[in-house]
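Hi V.,

You were right to ask for the full record rather than a summary. Here it is.
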Amino acid sequence: MRRPRLPAWLPLDPYVLALLATVGIAALLPARGAGATVAGGASTAAVALLFFLYGARLSTREALDGLRHWRLHLTVLACTFVLFPLLGLAARLLVPGLLTQPLYGGLLFLCLVPSTIQSSIAFTSIARGNVPAAICAGSFSSLAGILLTPLLAAALLGSDAGGFSPHSLLKIVLQLLLPFLLGQGLRRWVGGFLVRNKKVLGYVDRGSILLVVYTAFSAGMAAGVWHRVSLPRLGALMAVEAVLLAVMLLATWYGSARLGFGREDRIAIQFAGSKKSLAAGLPMASVLFGAQASLAVLPLMLFHQMQLMVCAVLARRRARDPEAVLPDQLAAGRVAEVSPPAQPPAAQGR
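Predicted structure:
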């Protein structure tokens, strides 16, 4: 298996740059009046398309095959939807000293969002962990998040979610869950097409999210929400998120060891259980928060970039651990003893 590689010096994620540029455009040229109506309709359609593609891509067979690692998946789900929310609730003590109420609402929403799939897989592979388990854990978390995130938001955020109500739950079902289930139902016929056009559809994914960001921040500009944010508050938010990420990385690594997991499984748990999905969180925030979505997604955007930079460094360090290097060296030595010198790739593919 060819392992993904990250640059020695990780730059700012280009997609995060695109997100920041979109925020800048929304600040300078926000959609207003009829333009806001058109942008809102296009954003709703884009979110539905996004979750349809999620459903059509998720292999039901792979998900069922991964059930044999049920202890690992339950651990990741507990980290994502139990430990993260508990830490988010504890951060309530920081209001109003460090965080404003709207920023705290965004931070708590961040703690309710499901885990990532792509970056969890990439970092687990780089660190020489259990990649199949990371694939299944990320998929299970994303699927569970479609239901758990809005339900947890109803229980924990309450009135902090500007547009949250029973009607919002219905919107979640119609706009997110129904397209996802439709994608699963049609996967047999459209799955091959999606695989063949994976790169092009990746641009559709990202373009849809950029449209959601533009619509949310345009509504925020029209509502004047940015007048309530100061640079010191943003700095405090970043410091709080850095502590949150550090706590989750330590808890997933040492907690999984206490539960008896091996090194490869611990790596999968650490990278799948400590991260949050920007792709899943942004559409949900646009439905749950309405005009307040611009502030609600700000903590998630900052945490997304932070987790990429920290986990990239951590994954490379994990790959150099003696437990990871020695087995590969021993395997190469065994192959050299029993195989002709002309066949070294067998050791590399292990």
